Give the backbone structure.
Amino acid sequence: MTIAEAREKCKSALGRLPRDIVIISVLILACLLSFGLGYQAGIDGAGESRDLQVEVLP
């Protein structure tokens, strides 16, 4: 299967769905992905100390 054939196959499959459903699905997937990556970053950095020090200069 060539790239052009795969593109046409995907285009025809997405063409059957209403455009609003495709947009909402992409938004939901993007939100879930960003939440998952943030959660994973929180787990990875849980053992590290992130002390914030503020010094007041005269």
